[in-house]
Amino acid sequence: MKIDLTKITDPSFLKQLSPKELVELAEQIRSFLIEKISKTGGHLASNLGVVELTLGLHYVFDSPQDTIIFDVSHQVYTHKILTGRADQFNQLRQHGGLSGYACYQESIHDKWESGHAGTSISAMVGYLYANELKNKTGHVVGVVGDASIINGTNMEALNFLGQDKSHRGIIVLNDNNMSISKSVGAFSIFLSKLRGSRLNHRLRKIFDKILPNIIWRMFRRIKRALKAIFQTGNMFEDMGYIYIGPIDGNNIKKVIKTLEMAKRMRGNILLHVITQKGKGYEFAEQDDEGSYHGVPAFDKDSGLELNENGSKITWSEGIANIIEELAEEKDLFVVMPAMLVGGGFLRFQEKYPKRIVDVGIAEEHAAVMSAALALNNVNVFLPLYSTFSQRAYDQILNDIARPNLKVIIGIDRAGFVGEDGSTHQGLYDISMFLSMPNMTVTMPRNLLEAKGILKYAYQQNGPFVIRYLRGVTTIEDTKDVEVIKPSWEQLTNKNGNYIIAYGPIVDQIVKLVEQEKMAVSVINARYINPVDEDLLRTILDSGKALLVYEQTHASGSLYQKILDFMAQNNYTNKIRALNVYNRVIKHGTIKDNMKDAQVAKADIIKALKEL
Fold this sequence. Notes:
Elements: H1 19-40, E1 42-43, H2 45-49, H3 51-60, E2 67-70, H4 77-85, H5 120-133, E3 140-145, H6 152-162, E4 170-175, H7 186-195, H8 198-210, H9 213-218, H10 220-230, H11 235-238, E5 242-248, H12 252-264, E6 269-274, H13 282-285, E7 294-295, E8 312-314, H14 315-327, E9 332-336, H15 346-351, E10 356-358, H16 363-375, E11 379-385, H17 386-389, H18 393-401, E12 407-412, H19 429-434, E13 440-442, H20 447-457, E14 464-467, E15 472-474, E16 489-490, E17 498-501, H21 505-515, E18 521-524, E19 527-529, H22 533-541, E20 546-553, H23 558-568, E21 575-580, H24 590-597, H25 601-609
Parallel strand pairs: 2-3, 3-4, 4-6, 5-6, 9-10, 9-11, 11-12, 12-14, 13-14, 17-18, 17-20, 20-21
Antiparallel strand pairs: 1-7, 8-15, 13-19, 16-18
Helix pairs in contact: 3-12, 5-6, 14-20, 16-18
């Protein structure tokens, strides 16, 4: 049996399929995903691991009347196929195409739109209360990964729901022993114990086979008592949940049988499901580092990326290499929240295993830990994706910035992020950091400048942010770079107006004004805070107009700092901002993002001509 996936309109057809047909469909979907993701890029390993689990959820429950919530929602590709979107996978993560995450605008089956870990259980509780208030029927199921459940928000919700006897939710814990990379921490060890011994698994299989359903339900307490012999300290049961599992989440028959049992039971359920991340694709199955979690386009036969960077290096790797160089001179310590691979720090970990710790998906904890290290005179580097740094606002403000502690914060994926879309755009961190006291904020235009800025960062005494893009930059020899203190630089010296910008876009602006033969002076504002008041005063004294270009949210930007300086010093120069003004930027290439935000090359030329 082969189903035309592009003709699926909703999941109801699954209930007519036999167990054998469901197994065949799972393999068909897995092949489809490998084929499509190899051409578009996307989250590969996580989606391959949950095919059977997603089929089981839609077989047992009736979406959209029943609510299925996916934590992070990067693992919803099978869900999208079953809800009528297979014909759009050629445009997965492309401009105007299918989002790589759950999306309210795409389908009534997407009940929770998320791109950050740790929100699913809170959302599930919200749905439970909303259903009660609106007199709606239907089950509410939250699917959360073993690495996401430890996030503070999920833990708060887990604690709340465990004592709530008037509402009933089903939490499916998708345990693949991985987040992006290997899961870490005591909770990971706890789950390993719950997975149990081989004897425990064998006894479970024997009892599953010999006991009919009715007898099985009658003797469930006996089973739990038996399990307790081999397994002690079940936190979930202590918190008030009915714990079921662990079960094989890649066994469709077992998944369906267990979900149907959970559906009938009373009380809040936690179903522990073991899945294999990357299942069905050899390279992803054997990946322990997380390289196949999210991938660009690749050759499916070799598993290798199609786009070779040649003389280029990712900004993440470039910054990690500079930190590695600085570690040879200084006693640096890196606090990494679950992004060892994406952040480029695998080599650093191999070289300095005692100078780096992966704390998991716990940005708030990472910030507070970094503050305490700084209090004890340890040179800290705290790399955070821009979109995830927002989650630690309170800790960075109160525990790092307020007491003026020397924590160097690397803001990775700053600016536009392209295919990951609206939940991951790095457009808000400057507004966040400029609202904090004592905070130095920078963005280099190349790795040489990054090295000079970071050398200064470890000489000064206060919180310090260095922002860098998602994408590649030229490989540079950064061994003998001089310290770059707070300053701007003028890259072109013309008699016309000025454009002030920062980051790699500065070099593109230089080329652009030369190509357009425009008499415009380009200023590299590599220090966003503090501003270079001496150079800024010189610029304003010329009487010329200014265009401040920023790939960031409008509020709390460099433009506003310059306006403030002008107001305090009675300057009346004409000034204009070109930034991402109150727009939600969706997925596509970074060029698509720039066009959607109206900060592309054509917009720069137009703005300069209108000054």
